[in-house]
Amino acid sequence: MLDSLLSILITGAMISALYALIAIGFTMIFGVGGVLNLAHGALIMAGAYVFVILNRDVIWESVALPRLVVFPVAVGVIGLASYGLYAGLVRYIEDDPVITFLATVVVATMTTEIALGIFGDQPYAYTVVSGQVGIAGTSVSYNDLAGFVLSWIAIGLLWYYITQTDGGRSILAASMSERGAQLTGVDLHSVRTRTWLIAGGLAGLAGIFLGGDQAATPLMWLNPLALAFIIVVIGGIGSIKGSIIAAYLIGYTETLTVSMLGQSFRGILSLIILLVVLFLLPQGLYGREYVHE
Amino acid sequence: MSERVRRIGRLRSTVRRSILLPSGRAAARVLSPIDRALQPGANLFNRFLGSYVGEVTGLQLGLLVAALVALATVPMWAPLFVGNYMRTLAVACIWSIFAMGWDIQSGYTGYISFGHSALSAAAGYTTALLAVNLSPVPSFWVTIPVSILAALVLGLLIGLPSLRLSGPYFSLVTFVAVLLFYRLTIGFSETLGGENGFQAVEVFTWDFTERYYLMLVPMLLVAAALTVVARSNVGTVLVAIRENERAVSAAGLDPTKFKLWSFALSSITMGIGGVLLAHFGGNVDPTTFVVVDRSIEMIAMAVIGGMSSVLGPIGGAFLFVLLRDEILRLWFGHSTRWVMLWLLVLLVLVFARNGLFRWIWHAVGAVGGDRE
After folding, report:
1. CA Rg, chain B, in Å?
2. ipTM over 0.90
3. Residue B337 CB coordination number (10 Å)
4. CA A34, chain centre distance (Å)
5. Under an 8 A CB cutoff, do B293 and A222 touch?
6. What's B1's DSSP letter?
7. Residues in CB range of A260: below 8 A, 6 or more apart
8. What is the mean pLDDT of residues A36-49?
9. How far apart are CA A98 and CA B94, in angstroms?
10. How does it sit in the membrane (chain B) (predicted)?
11. Integer Cα distance of B205 and B223 in angstroms
12. How confident is residue B276, by pLDDT bands cut at 50, 70 and 90?
């Protein structure tokens, strides 16, 4: 009993860390631009595939790039892709939430079809760091462990950036009140650019480890995105702290459901928690009430 | 940022001034005699039906009649083309019902639902479950109303609590409703058929012509009914809710009641579509009915046609299904076809936000100048 409890604690922590990364990116974009970016999931999937592409020895016949190089490059590419999405599409339509919502969904489905066209629908298994280690009687792959550690490093850096530097504080200010931020001399364009870059980078990071954990498939983004939704709503749309707490809540709920009820019930309990939270506490744990203009 | 946005705006207005407006004027000059010739017919239409379905100009009436004739005579001209147009057009009729069903709720009230595939699935799955679990399978006259009722019940179950929420929260809950439905079909695969669903539903008929009319007639009836509703006071209130909900309550009307009515109406429409789709192919499974993609497709159809109208979603659905199943199939492979299709949808979203068919309708209506 104690063993299985420990194992739930450990595996839950690993997966929750990745959910937190996804949810933070999603919530930052909503907080700053008021944009619900459904294409966030596509970036997760793209992260896994970009890593796969760069990791295969395609550059020179037999010379594979070292993973230490491939990894940051892949994260960077996804960050840029995220910014490209903003600069190339969202910027022109962000005044209309319905159109933005739909356009980002369309981008996500389009990306899925592109991935299907290039890679087919077979899952592609890989690991970022191979090998396993036993922690307190539970075997944990180095891949998950690295994901967990890097996720907390990224969250720590983000926290430092947002609270301790001017650039970060302007993001925070813009998410509180766009008009107020503008009046105090914040350049909204640069704030949005940085937000989309950061959110994309976090999504790429999460995608690479998620793919390494389960295998890359064109539809691998749907579940994490749905979970990110749930997490963001429970934590409060726009709140980073809320996202982290809710990510762990949902991550553990998932792990518990899977180990108690089986794989096919994955997700049902989280969805029910979400419904309860929405009806009892529509603005989430730490959220501001969404003002419909 | 604003510099580039402005440059694109300038480009757009140059295109409009030097290409679109002159060619529009030329087209208007050609079309206005036809418009005038058809005007007596339109006057007659307006006198008898105008107060129920809205007034039309001569050319608009001509367009409507031409479209109706084209739809009614499909079995005569469809075999002339390469491809299975009889089937594609029948499918388009079903999807038109879905798109209209989505639009009467989301398009009119502005509460964007991502969960409408769950409503059609409720009807489809009820039909399938009745067929599987009852040993003398009840006749269509029993299963069809029961299935539509099931869609209505699920619609109220989703709508009653979620319509308290607004904006993105409402969309999220409806999105979750679809995901939950999908999970349940997997989680309870013994009762709900799992990934493979059911193949036990009796198909209306395999005869192409008969089947086409069996889909077309309900579609036209639904369209007529929804047009009457949308043109009535109820439709006006729904649009008012989208524009300014507080003003509606200030006028002494209860917005929640109207939103719920629109949800119920939409559920019934989705139920009709779901039943037709179930009896069209005979199989009810998550991919055909439940998954999020199906919701997104209906939304795309309604939006490219023009939200908050009845003709818009129909036009959008026909365009979408024809492109998907016939036109793009001629040139592209499976996934490339979808990429092209979504790219086109994206272009319409960005450059013609109000929808293609609404734009055509108004352009045609403007021929011959304002008469009102």
Report:
1. 22
2. no
3. 20
4. 17
5. no
6. -
7. none
8. 89
9. 25
10. Multi-pass membrane protein
11. 23
12. very high
**pTM for this model (two decimals):** 0.85
Query: Inter-chain contact B342–A113, Cβ cutoff 8 Å?
Result: yes
In chain A, where the domains are located: 2-280
pLDDT tens string B67-122:
889 888 888 888 888 778 888 899 999 999 999 999 999 888 888 888 899 999 99
Torsion of CA A90, A95, A99, A105, to 10 degrees: 40
What are the structure tokens assigned to A158, written together? 């983000």
Residues A85 and B103: their CA atoms lie apart, in Å, by 28
CATH topology of domain B56-368: ABC transporter involved in vitamin B12 uptake, BtuC (1.10.3470)
User: What is the rounded distance in angstroms from the CA atom of residue A83 to the CA atom of residue A290?
Assistant: 25
The CA distance from B113 to B184, in Å, is 20
Closest to A172 in 3D by CA, of A94, A85, A84, A240: A240
For the stretch A95-109, pLDDT in tens is 877 788 888 888 998
Rounded Cα–Cα distance for residues B98 and B96 (Å): 5
Fold topology of A2-280: ABC transporter involved in vitamin B12 uptake, BtuC (1.10.3470)
Interface test with A, best of B111, B157, B176, B354 (most A CBs within 10 A): B176
Q: Does the beta-carbon distance from B172 to A278 stay under 8 Å?
A: yes
Question: Measuring CA to CA, which residue among B105, B128, B91 is closest to residue B267?
Answer: B105
Interface test with A, best of B8, B164, B170, B179 (most A CBs within 10 A): B179
| AA identity, residue B237 | V
Torsion of CA A290, B1, B5, B7, to 10 degrees: 170
**Cβ-defined contact of A271 to B171 (cutoff 8 Å):** no
On whether any CB of chain A is under 8 Å from the CB of B290, the answer is no
CB B111 within 8 A of CB B259: yes
Instruction: Decide the pairing of beta strands A132-135 and A138-141.
Output: antiparallel
Query: CB–CB of B61/B42 below 8 Å?
Result: yes
Name the percent of chain A in helix, strand, coil, to the closest 5. Answer: 75, 5, 25
- Comparing CB atoms, the residue among B168, B343, B350 nearest residue A290 is B168
Q: Where do we find the tokens 């007529």?
A: B224
Residues 6+ apart with CB under 8 A from B29: none
Ranges of each domain in chain B? 56-368
Burial level of A61, CB count in 10 A (0-12/13-18/19+)?
A: exposed
Secondary structure (DSSP) of B62-79? HHHHHHHHHHHTHHHHGG
Q: List the single best residue of A85, A89, A105 to mutate versus B (max B Cβ within 10 A).
A: A105
* d(C-alpha B203, C-alpha B280), whole Å: 6
Does residue A78 contact residue A201 with C-beta atoms inside 8 Å? yes
What is d(CA A252, CA A227) in angstroms, rounded to the nearest whole number? Answer: 12
**Which of B297, B300, B306 lies closest to B352, judged by CA?**
B306
Classify each residue of B282-295 as buried b or exposed e, where b means 16 or more C-beta atoms within 10 Å of its C-beta.
bbbbbebbbbbbbb
Residue B109 three-state SS: helix
- A134: β partners: A139
Side chain identity at residue A231, one-letter code: I
Are B338 and A189 inside 8 Å of each other by CB? no
Query: Per residue in A166-182, pLDDT tens?
Result: 888 888 888 877 788 88
- Please give the Cα distance from A26 to A108 (Å, whole number): 14
In whole angstroms, what is the distance from residue B189 CA to residue B215 CA?
30
H or E element: which one contains B289? Answer: helix B286-289
